[in-house]
Specification:
The chain has about 210 residues and is mainly α. The protein has a domain of about 140 residues. Helices cover about 70% and strands about 5% of the residues. It is built from seven helices and two strands, in the order αββαααααα. It has a two-stranded antiparallel ribbon. A hairpin with a 5-residue loop joins strand 1 and strand 2. Helix 3 packs antiparallel against helix 4 and helix 4 packs antiparallel against helix 7.
């Protein structure tokens, strides 16, 4: 015997419907798989989409870029030579002042003349360092521009930059890259030692009672 309830039609099983970004519906799909599938489709489109070839440079533009690169490299070399000469002058003048003071038994304050001289050379050296860094950056831009447009561009500035980063990660590498600060810091220290040593040598007998000796 069949009841009236059994004769009623049963509803269909529930389904899950997801609407993707394009507006299409997908029945029976797990919602957690939606973002992953969209990301996969995006990566697939990126792999299949061909890259646009760079527009070739005009021969005159290539020639001008190469001429600029050679000029920049020449300026960088000249600044490097200038660094060496400026530091040689600083050593020569500081040594001359120290020898003259020791020979003539000059007072301690005579050695203070070294400080403004060292500071002047330091400022000149730092200014040239800034110009050198700007030129290296311009050389890197020229290299990237040539390679970007299919030219066989150099990699001098790129290799130098990579080498600097590698040296900075080694023990004492930061001191090597900061050689200008180390040099002028040493010059200031030597001038201070010469002045302070001469002061103590001359007034040591007067200082001993003050320090309990």
């Amino acid at each position: 015997m069949t009841s009236a309830i059994d004769d009623q039609p049963k509803p269909d099983a529930p389904t899950t419907t997801i609407v993707d970004s394009a507006g299409a519906t997908d029945a029976g799909t797990n919602m957690a798989e939606g973002p992953a599938s969209l990301a996969g489709e995006k990566r697939k489109r990126q792999r299949t989409t061909p890259r646009e070839k760079p527009e070739p440079l005009h021969p005159d533009e290539v020639r001008l870029l190469w001429d600029e690169f050679k000029l920049v490299q020449d300026k960088i070399d000249r600044i490097g030579d200038f660094h060496f000469r400026v530091r040689t002058w600083a050593i020569t003048l500081s040594t001359a002042i120290a020898i003259a003071g020791l020979t003539n038994k000059a007072s301690w304050y005579v050695y203070l003349v070294s400080f403004p001289l060292i500071a002047s050379f330091n400022l000149i050296d730092r200014a040239q360092t800034h110009w050198q860094e700007a030129l290296v950056e311009r050389a890197r831009q020229v290299e990237n521009h040539l390679r970007k447009h299919g030219q066989a561009g150099p990699r001098v500035a790129q290799v130098i930059r990579q080498r600097e980063m590698a040296v900075s990660e080694t023990f004492g590498g930061r001191l090597v890259l900061s050689n200008g600060r180390v040099f002028y810091g040493t010059m200031y220290a030597l001038a201070a030692l010469a002045s302070g040593g001469t002061f103590l040598w001359k007034y040591w007998d007067d200082i001993k009672p003050w320090i309990g000796l």
